[in-house]
Design brief:
There is one protein chain. By secondary structure, this protein is α+β, with helices and mostly antiparallel strands. Helix content is 32%, strand content 22%. It is built from 3 helices and 3 strands, in the order αβαββα. Strands 2-1-3 form a 3-stranded mixed β-sheet, with helices on one face.
Amino acid sequence: MHELSVAQAILDAVKGEAEKHPGARPLRVGVRVGELSGVNPDSLSFCFECLVQGTEWEPLVMHLDCPGGEELELAYLELEEPATDLEERPVAPGNGKGQGEGES
């Protein structure tokens, strides 16, 4: 079952990319698995789920695209960036700015 080693390599790549974005949380990784790649998509998905289950990576989901061809490649990684101080502060409605300014 070489799908387990492929799933581990995908997870390692995700971890490596996540380290470049401190505080970000990986949500989804997209993988292209060509029909002629020699990798069974169902087995790959199962192995990946087993690797992340019960770990800090558990929210991570793998999305498979299965085109014709021999490709086996990472297509994308979706990260959730941490909220900044500005994003966390609620904006009070009706602060006297914006609509109605300059009206008498």
